[in-house]
């Protein structure tokens, strides 16, 4: 039958599909066996998962359509059986609530799952896990209990969760497999673990020797609030002799799946291992030595068949390879098997390149540099498979008789020309005219820099004046080295990177969080500068992942992909335990039950979840620093790359100290919402500044398909906790109070964040801001500041920067500031069309530095109008945004204080035409400012501080 349609506001497609299912159900009931019918009903109920979740984004029609169908299914014994045995516990509860018409309870469950995740504690009967029942925390909040049978665990609730973390061969040919495996909700100590090899096409499993280990990092991906799985780690060993015996005993079977079984009481769950740890195990598994004459066991892995071992037999092999400069030499021992009649390099789409045999006929050589067209351009790589022409006339790939390690010893992996073997053990020759590799990494003793040692391998003997140019790059940030130099005359070099950064000339701070690829910048034959990845090799590769917990950051060095390209992960300084869901749950629980005394002398400020220390909170903080110097001012930071105002204390979000302050600070100031678990204590005073006068509908006015059950529940709690709601104007006061359900009287003081725009220091601040950004006084600055879209997952703006730069000419400099909600998804490094100022700490500096603003529906228009400078509105999706996505609070087209355009070409034309309605002399602009920013006179922060403190 047709697949289930995607959820959408109109339930017509769903209704049609359910009618089809109901028709098919009659046939299933009449013709299928009981087992087949149960399976069919289970699949149909499972198909509804996304539609049940979509109930929070839709109205009664969608809910009632689902309710009618699910209730009819569950009235039959087959449907009930399918519900109990085919769906996991949360889906069983949701469908049962749906059938009973309990919409509020459905929304409550969905909100709880969004807030806290899907894990739950278990209750065991008579101490036996086999009779355990699930106890999801939301049960206590439902309007009435659910059927207890829904909570009894069944097989679908206990999937085996496993991962391979290590796969290594010893010199003697033994294989060691490391990994972890657990059953959700059950302590690994209560489980018996078995690991074995299952022959292909057979149910027979040969047990392996297994030892249990501890690894606290398992709890990070497990994301379980209630149970630790640190004891789920294991090591399984396959001796070399056992591999040969397995092949003999299985009657020539050439493949075995690595099979894991966990038993707890009467529960027994078995499966293959389908995932690997990308930080510890490359996609191409290492190759071990032969198990016998011309045969080896290799490791393979994919998501469908999981980890498995496969026997490979080679027609022709070599154990002797030498690489000298551009020459590859391969030797054969006649006693070790057939010596090929000829040897050649093969690559798809190209004629083969023959090796030259010596007089004995057992030694073959080829000069890779002499092969026509062999030298790839720039940093590109040429890869050949070595193939042998056998005496019987067949051509077969040449097998490597040693292991991956012995090949690395025979052929320098840092050289421009080197040999490799595939995951199947076949020999390859790889040429890159200049190859940069890294062999050592260390954090300096003071924790302020990262030291990387590597080698530049070149095919030519021409000396390089300077070592390779390396950089660290995320999609949003570049880090240049402090120093780089040669260590010897043979291509070894050292590059030192800072672990702090003064990105905007405002003082040193930690690096921004992110995944920094180690790249080499090169100039190709066309003069274009490109960045290529740099792999880790040798002792460094063996040590990865390397981890360091510093005062300001956590660092992880890992290898990615088949080449093990080096990546530096930078994040907030947290231990492995602090990163787990269990630790977070403990902190939330401690916060919720806190009875610590209130500190009326402290203020906790937060802006956009700690991504900035700015907005109106910053202006109030600065005023308090002068008027109440004894007040302790704390600022939430997402990580320590966020600059903090002078004389203020940063506190890491969701750290123990942050939770303590959230519970005990006498004053709370936020421009957004605190997390779902926040509950204001009666003695606290909460100032909500919000982050802009709204044009687009927000809060409870947002279309239901644009919000979640969790967000709507949070809004109700948040507004009830506010003691003061700051507003820029009477319009903003009325709109915000209505949208959020605020029952108090908003404080119409003007926006504190705009005080700087009219201050006496504004002119000097403009010059200083432009200096920090590297903008000359004679350049015009276009600031592009778009809002985000509910239905656009990517951070791609509508402005074509390249086209705009080309048409505006060198007189203009473009600044781009992405919305905080999608800032983490932007890709702005590696281009020279604009300056990415998304993380610039203070937006007022940008308003002052700019000569004009380009925006769309952002509240920036209500702030920028205070400057009196031109505004332009790039709105190609105006009709959709206005009529279906969000909607507006006023006639935007009639009141917009500047030209509205739908393309980059039209925007540039309007800018160059110097449209009069975009500047302060336009009547519409003046009316707009009078209505929406009448009190932005430079004293709003002082008024707010005086009213509260």
UniProtKB/TrEMBL annotation:
What membrane topology does this protein have? Peripheral membrane protein
Source domain of life: Bacteria
A single GO molecular function term of this UniProt record: CDP-glycerol glycerophosphotransferase activity
> Which UniProt keyword terms apply here?
Cell membrane, Membrane, Teichoic acid biosynthesis, Transferase
Instruction: Offer one example of a GO biological process linked to this entry.
Output: teichoic acid biosynthetic process
Q: Name one Pfam family in it.
A: Glyphos_transf
Q: Name one GO cellular component term.
A: plasma membrane
> Which coarse location class describes where this protein primarily resides?
membrane
Tell me if Membrane is a UniProt keyword of this record: yes
- Enumerate the subcellular locations listed in this protein's record, separating them with semicolons: Cell membrane
Its family? Belongs to the CDP-glycerol glycerophosphotransferase family.
Which PANTHER family does the UniProt entry name for this protein?
TEICHOIC ACID GLYCEROL-PHOSPHATE PRIMASE, TEICHOIC ACID GLYCEROL-PHOSPHATE TRANSFERASE
The protein depicted here goes by the name: CDP-glycerol glycerophosphotransferase family protein
């Amino acid at each position: 039958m047709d697949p289930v349609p995607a959820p959408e506001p109109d339930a017509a497609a769903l209704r049609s599909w359910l009618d089809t299912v109901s028709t098919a159900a009659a046939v299933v009931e009449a013709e299928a066996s009981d087992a087949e019918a149960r399976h069919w009903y289970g699949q149909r109920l499972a198909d509804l998962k996304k539609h049940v979740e979509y109930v929070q984004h839709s109205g009664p029609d969608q809910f009632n359509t689902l309710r009618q169908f699910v209730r009819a299914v569950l009235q039959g014994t087959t449907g009930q059986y399918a519900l109990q045995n085919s769906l996991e516990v949360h889906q069983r509860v949701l469908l049962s609530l749906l059938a009973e018409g309990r919409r509020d309870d459905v929304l409550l469950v969905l909100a709880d799952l969004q807030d806290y995740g899907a894990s739950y504690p278990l209750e065991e009967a008579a101490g036996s896990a086999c009779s355990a029942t699930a106890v999801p925390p939301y049960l206590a909040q439902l309007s009435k209990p659910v059927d207890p049978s829904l909570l009894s665990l069944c097989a679908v609730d206990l999937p085996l969760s496993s991962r391979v973390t290590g796969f290594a061969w010893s010199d003697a040919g033994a294989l060691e497999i490391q990994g972890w495996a657990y059953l959700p909700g059950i302590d690994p100590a209560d489980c018996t673990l078995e690991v074995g090899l299952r022959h292909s096409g057979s149910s027979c499993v040969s047990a392996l020797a297994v030892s249990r280990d501890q690894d606290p990092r398992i709890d990070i991906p497990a994301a379980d609030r209630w149970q630790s799985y640190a004891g789920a780690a294991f090591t399984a060993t396959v001796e070399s002799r056992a591999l040969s015996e397995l092949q003999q005993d299985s009657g020539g079977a050439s493949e075995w799946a690595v099979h894991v079984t966990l038993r707890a009481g009467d529960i027994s769950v078995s499966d293959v291992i389908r995932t690997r740890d990308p930080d510890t195990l490359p996609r191409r598994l290492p190759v071990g030595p032969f198990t016998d004459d011309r045969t080896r066991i290799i490791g393979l892995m994919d998501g469908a068949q999981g980890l498995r071992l496969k026997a490979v037999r080679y027609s022709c092999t070599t154990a002797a390879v030498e690489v000298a400069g551009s020459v590859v030499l391969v030797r054969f021992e006649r006693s070790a098997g057939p010596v090929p009649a000829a040897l050649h390099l093969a690559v798809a789409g190209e004629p083969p390149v023959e090796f030259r045999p010596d007089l004995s006929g057992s030694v073959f050589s080829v000069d890779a540099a002499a092969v026509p067209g062999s030298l790839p351009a720039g940093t590109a790589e040429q890869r050949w498979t070595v193939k042998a022409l056998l005496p019987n006339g067949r051509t077969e790939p040449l097998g490597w008789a040693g292991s991956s390690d012995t090949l690395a010893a025979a052929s320098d992996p840092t050289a421009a020309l080197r040999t490799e073997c595939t995951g199947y053990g076949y020999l390859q020759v790889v040429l890159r005219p200049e190859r940069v590799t890294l062999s050592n990494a260390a954090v300096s003793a003071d924790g302020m820099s990262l030291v990387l040692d590597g080698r530049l391998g070149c095919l030519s003997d021409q000396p390089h004046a300077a070592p390779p140019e390396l950089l660290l790059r995320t999609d949003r940030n570049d880090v240049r080295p402090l120093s780089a130099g040669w260590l010897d005359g043979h291509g070894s070099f050292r590059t030192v990177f800072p672990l702090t950064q003064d990105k905007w000339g405002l003082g040193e701070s930690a690096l921004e969080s992110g995944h920094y690829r180690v790249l080499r910048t090169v100039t190709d034959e066309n003069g274009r500068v490109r960045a290529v990845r740099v792999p880790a090799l040798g002792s460094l590769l063996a040590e990865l992942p390397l981890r360091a917990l510093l005062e300001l950051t956590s660092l992880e060095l890992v290898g990615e992909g088949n080449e093990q390209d080096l990546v530096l992960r930078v994040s907030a300084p947290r231990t492995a335990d602090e990163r787990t869901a269990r630790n977070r749950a403990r902190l939330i629980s401690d916060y919720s039950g806190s009875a610590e005394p209130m500190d009326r002398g402290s203020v906790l400020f937060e802006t956009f979840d700690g991504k900035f220390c700015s907005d109106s909170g910053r202006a109030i903080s600065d005023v308090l620093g002068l008027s109440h110097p004894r007040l302790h001012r704390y600022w939430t930071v997402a990580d320590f790359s966020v600059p903090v105002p002078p004389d203020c204390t940063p506190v890491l979000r969701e750290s123990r100290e942050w939770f303590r302050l959230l519970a005990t600070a006498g004053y709370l100031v936020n421009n957004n919402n605190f997390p779902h678990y926040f509950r204001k204590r009666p003695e606290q005073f909460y100032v909500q500044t919000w982050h802009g006068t709204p044009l687009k509908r927000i809060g409870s006015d947002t279309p239901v398909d644009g919000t979640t059950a969790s967000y709507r529940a949070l809004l109700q709690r948040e507004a009830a906790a506010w003691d003061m709601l700051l507003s820029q104007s009477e319009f903003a006061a009325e709109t915000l109070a209505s949208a959020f359900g605020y029952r108090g009287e908003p404080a119409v003081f003007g926006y504190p964040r705009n005080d700087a725009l009219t201050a006496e220091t504004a002119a000097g601040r403009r010059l200083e801001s432009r200096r920090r950004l590297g903008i000359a006084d004679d350049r015009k600055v276009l600031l592009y500041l778009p809002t985000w879209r509910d239905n656009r997952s990517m951070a791609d703006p509508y402005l074509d920067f390249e086209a705009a730069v080309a048409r505006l000419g060198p007189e203009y400099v473009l600044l781009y500031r992405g919305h905080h909600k999608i800032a983490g998804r932007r890709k702005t490094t590696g281009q020279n069309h604009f300056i990415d100022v998304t993380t610039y700490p203070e937006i007022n500096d940008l308003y002052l530095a700019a000569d004009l603003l380009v925006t769309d529906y952002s509240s920036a228009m209500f702030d920028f109008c205070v400057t009196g400078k031109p505004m332009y509105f790039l709105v190609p999706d105006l009709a959709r945004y206005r009529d279906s996505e969000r909607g507006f609070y006023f006639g935007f087209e009639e009141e917009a204080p500047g030209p509205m355009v739908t393309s980059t070409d039209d925007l540039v034309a309007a800018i160059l035409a110097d449209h009069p309605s975009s500047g302060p002399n336009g009547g519409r602009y003046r009316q707009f400012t009078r209505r929406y920013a009448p009190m932005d006179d430079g004293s709003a922060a002082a008024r707010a501080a005086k009213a509260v403190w």
